[in-house]
Sequence to fold (943 residues):
Amino acid sequence: MRYLPKSESDREVMLRQIGAKSIDDLFAAIPPEYRLKGDLKIPRAYAESEIVEFFRDCATGSAQGYATFLGAGAYSHYRPVVIDSLVSRGEFFTAYTPYQPEIAQGTLQSIFEFQTMICELTGMDVANASMYDGSTGAAEALMMAARLTGRHKSVVASSVHPEYREVITTYARYQGMPISTVAYSKNGRVDLSALEKGIDNETAGVLVQSPNFFGAIEDVAAIADLVHKKGALLIVSIAEAVSLGIVKPPVEADIVSMEAQSFGVPLGFGGPYCGVMATHDKFVRQMPGRLVGQTLDRNGKRGFVLTLSTREQHIRREKATSNICTNQALVALMCSIFMTVYGREGLKDLAKQNLAKAHYAAGEFKKAGATLLFEGAPRFNEFVIQTKTDSYAINDKLLGQRIIGGFPLKKFYPDLGNASLWCCTETTAKASIDAAAKQVAL
Amino acid sequence: MNKKIRKVTTHISQNEVLLFERSSAGKKAYELPPLDVPEVDPAKLLGAQARQDLGHMPEVSEVEIIRHFTRLSTWNYAVDHGMYPLGSCTMKYNPRVNEAVARLTGLAEAHPYQPERISQGALRILKMLSEQLIEITGMDAITLQPAAGAHGELTGILLVRAYLESLGNPRKKVLIPDSAHGTNPATAAMAGYAVENLKSNAAGMVDIASLVAQVNEDVAALMLTNPNTLGVFEQEIHKIAEVLHAKGALLYMDGANMNALVGKTRPGDFGVDVMHLNLHKTFSTPHGGGGPGSGPVACKKILEPFLPSPVVVTKPDGTLGFDYNRPQSLGRVRMFYGNFGMHIRALAYIMANGPDGLRQTTEDAVLNANYIRKGLEGAYDLPYKTPTMHEVVFSDHIQSQKGIKTGDIAKRLIDYGFHPYTVSFPLVVHGAIMIEPTESESKESCDMFIEAMKDIAEEVEEHPEFVLEAPHNTRISRLDETMAARKPILRWKPQSEAVGK
Ligand SMILES: Cc1ncc(COP(=O)(O)O)c(C=O)c1O
Fold:
């Protein structure tokens, strides 16, 4: 086996040294009746060339060569090549959690930089080292709000990503955390009067997403006012991180729960992505996830360590803020590199291109005869159209032209009929938009 | 002449500053293509929601980015450097072909909502991996949705809960041995269960008498790691399962230590009802400096209806698709389908090994741990003499007489060129030295490790203060963790603002 650095004679010498007659002696603790008698029924060992061929075959016909209008929580942005050349360094990707800071400063310093950039972009004081993804991060943010307020109810906007809401439902069920849902209004934003009625003095946290699942940017300041008046905490979820280049950060929120996939993480059929949570200084001790802090070594040299770990499972066990251990570190590093490549000016320019493309597409679709839904709200790079024809039928036609159409909303919002959610990023060509416009007219 | 030659203190690559300290206005590392649609005015489109500025986000050039992160990377120790015997973490070699195939465009750029018709390859990967993991564990069904081990634990315990609820009573408690990893009790709490501690016996195993005494109709499950965190196989595992089953409770297995079992025995055969795997441990997906991982959960038939939605199915027309119509499902635990990139890598690993390779891998992992145990016996205290599987746990009992703790020995090990073992765990061993070499170490590197550990044991006797000051050869010396926690600095701020606080 090519991954095993031993010869047969090495094995024999080692067994002799141990005082074992055969390797079976070392497995004597397993009762004989449970020892496997034969081979596992899995395919024989493949040569590397065969493995590559197998996966190439799986990759054929998928994604490559298609223009896409899919967003809906996973965004297709260009990934600068330096990301993969850096994260492919074995020093990064074959290390583990930086438990021994003297030989993990590379990971630690890069996480400290990640935390800093997430704070700069979200307007929060502190950010953690990552969560699994935006959906679990949102669920954990609601649990954090419950700990902070000592209250138990949660309110979630129906314009939060439906799969996030499903995850929240799973997590909340056994926390004794009832969840109520607040509808969206005509402009696609949270219905403020419904929200006001939905919050009571037992509400711990209110979760909205901005831009929300329909692409509408929420009026976070107005929502925060309502929420804070009732003594609850506001959690803002951000699924399209690139929006932060041009959309006002949710500084009025108490907790920001973000999915940073847009920052240079491959779509990868849904994962791995990069959740991250950010909050105010005063709430940090209830925040889940790892944190890196700055300190000094014995010679007064700056260095970084994992810190405030008394919040975590390995110290607090059943009283911990979360059970999270392994997180999404390497993906967070991808995000850091992406944020650095674009930086202070580039993130703005990039976001502006997204805005322009989506604005153009919405205009063209409308001209072609589709109805734009939720026109009253500001939006970033996603918009909703309603068509006469079934959304899937439109997408079938487009697929023939190697275009992946928008996301049919029927699946999650049957009330919306033939509505679909379209996303344009900097990678969407005008030609594809024009081609798609022809189909949505029908 | 001589006067002009200055002493070089430390190489520039050892003094890389923070990105923000490298930044200055106008430097850039990007170029966007010309916009092919009309420009827009964000202020007009976004109104009050338009962002004014991006604060202190860095402005640097591409070469500076490459140098920055390359320099940082050289301050890490990684599996690619050498032995990384971090117990319980299975720091094995991460095959390069895994990385290559995970980056194939058709897989890396596949959108989770793209039509199933063009996702057949991705679905095939999910299906094949599922089937092979089911065979490896001896279970009946599986979900690949959980993002890591702890997330798998939560999914598994929620499965138990959903199942028990369907029978009318979710019960109240989960039993957890004192040797368990911290995620186990944290998970049980998240699933709404009270945690009850189960004491280990003198051999480091579950004490059957205590178990019998503790299992009653309030107990939903026992969360057991097998081999446990002492590297000891629970020999009475089947008895344990029987005791639980007799009272209607289930056996959950934390599969973090599957590297000791693959191809030799199957949890499904010895009574386990539900378990998680850590693809980032046993199945070679890289640890990435802390993640990402993947924590599939395999279960017996009785739990299958409750698995998270969706599951991959073969449709009447023979193509693969997702089935969302699962009325008894516990729901979703993560958006989309899990950490697919890790699924690709794990499948590539299984394919590279085949049945023989997997078995040999397990045998070598156990061989290495036993070899190290033999080599260090005498030099270090071995609190449990029970046979060792894939990892061995010593203690600092001998060295602590000289005031040297497991953490100090670990720091000195760094000077010898090794990543330390696990120091803070399992809690049942005071001053634990938890060593998991994995199969990726040759006889020579095991020999060098043994020699290093023995040398350190001697140093402890002769120059304990030298060990206390270790590491001596690293870029920075021991860091002040107390200071970091007392006055947390969790982000960079410009000098002016930092001083203001
Ligand atoms: C025994 C054991 N159980 C559970 C876990 C948690 O797994 P993860 O870090 O993938 O969440 C670990 C991880 O270190 C472990 O060692």
Chain A has a mean pLDDT of 97. The pocket of pyridoxal-5'-phosphate is lined by residues A 325-326; B 88-89, 148-150, 181, 183, 225, 229, 254, 256, 278, 293, 295 (CB under 6 Å).
